[in-house]
Every structure is written in structure tokens, then in C-alpha cells.
Amino acid sequence: MSATRPVVGFVGMTHLGLVSATGTAAKGFEVLGVDPDGDLIGRLRTGTLPVVEPDLPETIAANGARQRYSADFADLAGCDVVYIAADVPTDDEGRSELSGIRALIGRVIPALAPEAVLVVLCQVPPGFTRGLPLPAERLYYQVETLIFGRAVERATQPERFIVGCADPARPLPAAFQAVLDGFGCPILPMRYESAELAKIAINVCLVASVSVANTLAELSEGIGADWHEIAPALRLDRRIGAYAYLAPGLGIAGGNLERDLATVIRLADERGTDAGVIEAFVRNSRRRRDWVLQVLERHVFPGRPDPLIAILGLAYKVDTHSTKNSPALALIRALPGRRLKVHDPVVREADGLRSEASALDAIAGADVLAVMTPWSEYRALDPAAVCERLAGRWVIDPYGVFDARVMSGLGVDYATLGRPIEGGQDR
Asked: Judging by beta carbons within 10 Å of its beta carbon (0-12, 13-18, 19+), is residue 283 exposed, middle or buried?
């Protein structure tokens, strides 16, 4: 450990690694970001970032010389703590591809200083960390807290650190303890497998909340109730809480939640455990992902077989460039041969469709507007200007970017999650 504060290395300068390195440097630590891609390192040194996150460029600029980059793994010899922080890709069924992480770790371990601590930060299945070829007193797992669109906030203001250890009763190495203490949040040591499963457990609980909200929001749409009136009552129930995931959405996306559900189902199958409730979450997510398509098929296409459809938003959620499992892309792929115009403030092209210069350009002349990502710039649109540019009457707005009563008053047929359709064929 250095005479002052430990030097911290992060290996893998993709989303997780870059943001985590930035958050750690923001706490005053000297940080080295390492990646085998020399071109990526060159771009990072010039301030060209591979990801989109609020406050990320500003935080990196403020970190200054504390945040350095290298493509040479030998430079890790100067680090006291080294995090493996590359993003772990998933396939279309939510399974993790771990060969890249194993190869990365294989290059890192020989480069470590003799007393340096290795911490696996990227998400791995239970049992992964214990199998790595490093003495237990130098090997740890830490649950990552990345949330797309809020990554810098989460990296600088974590709620707690969950740390997987060979022996949770033993004190953490001084350098590793100093890094964690720099964030001033609770530290929860536990065995490797418990920490690896804790990340999955957190995401499964989130999916449970989302699935409940989506199921009851769909019921609300059918019986004339308004889920948005019900949710505040649930938040005031102490058994549920003010921060519960009660906003209905288009299923789960992004890759990480799907991976965790797939992992639970796989582990349950291997060990003879009933995971039927988890399988139900997956079915519910797939059903709600297609909600916009269902509105189109039930209410729009019968009266207008060949509408021009404007799609606002291609990213899977706001404040990110990621389109992994994006509901917008799922909708586009479900509409082959249809006339489509798209816009996204960050994603410039997807599935062969180029983003229009502005949201209003995408809307102009469209028969149907579908708002698939609730970007703040869409919330700022003047509803009257939107309706003036529409050639048709339909606005499908799952996330409630627009006010339902305002849109109905402007003479459009308006559909949003959790409420009966305003106007349209149901009236």
C-alpha cells in the first residue's frame, strides 16, 4: 500500500469499469483504468467516452490527473487494489458469456503486485469467484451498483457495499478497507456465494415489484381504474415503501435483470428447486413488452391498415445509449414492412432506421405516435405542437410523457399504461 492512499486499478473500460473508476477517483483516490483495446484508451485520453451517462464527462474532467488510462497490463504492478470491471455480455436468453472475463483475469493475475488485492466487480454467477487461482486473502467479490442513466450518482453515492470473502469473519486487507471507507457507507461482508447471489436477489425483488405493477396496471386498463391513483397509496404502506418499483413499464430490459432471472431458473433446475414464480415474471415481462404492439393491433390497424408510425426513443431507458433488449427495437422488429419514422436524442441509428433530426420531424405527417423511451426532451414537447404535426389521431404513450387529459382534450386517442384509453374505439 502506498504511503498515502491506495492506488486503485480498474480493468475493462466499458460502462461498468469507466464509471466505477470515475467514482473512485472522485473520492480522491489515484485511479488507473486499463483496457487491452489501445484505440479505446487513446480515445479516453482525449476525452472521447464510449458511453453516455449524465455528469460523466464533467466528473472525469474534475478528477484531472487522478484518473489515468493504460493499455499495458504491466502498469497494474503499481496498484494496491485491482478491480475486474468489464461488462459481461449476455445472449438473447439472458445467459452470461464468461470467457472474456476469464481471459481478462488470466492476464491480470500475473501483473499484480505481490500483496495486491483482486476484486471481481462485474456480475458473475455463484461459484465463479471461489474458483479463481489466487490466495483467498487476496481475492474478493464486490456487488456492482450500476444503474444505466444514474451510474455516476450510484458510483459516488452507494447505499452500501456487499463484499464476498472466503472468510467473512476476517478483517479486510488494509488497502481494500481504505478504498471502501472512502465512500462512507455500510460494508456488508459475506461469503463469496452469498454476495454473488445477493446481486441476483436484489434484481429478482425488483422484477417482482415491476411484475406486480404491470399486472395490476393492465387490470386497471380493463376495468376503468387508474393505477396512477393507486400507486401513491401503496407507497404510504410501510410494508411496501416510498421507493418501491410501482411504475408500470414495458417489461424488463437492458440485459442484467434478464440474466439474473435466467440464472435463477437454471440453478433451480439443476438443484431441483421450484422456480415457477420466476418463470412467471419472465412471461409477464414478455407480455408487457408487446403492449404497444397490442394497442396497434387492437385499435389502430383495423381502421387504418397502413399507418405511418412515429417512434420516439430507441434506447431501452432514458439517459443511456444502450439498446439491449429495447422495447422500441422489439416493436420495430414486430412491424416488418410497416412505414416507420424514428427519433432518439442519443441513438442515431437502429435496425436500419436513422433518427430524424428532431422529435417533431419524426412526428410530422405520422398517423400514430408511440413514445417508447420517456426522454426529458419528449416531456418538454408542447402537446399542441405535437398534435398539429400528427396526420392521424393516435398517441400511444406507455410511460405517461404527456398528460392524458390534455391529450384527450386536443382530440387525439390516447393510450398509456395503467389507464383506460382516452377516446378511441373503447369510448
From this structure: exposed
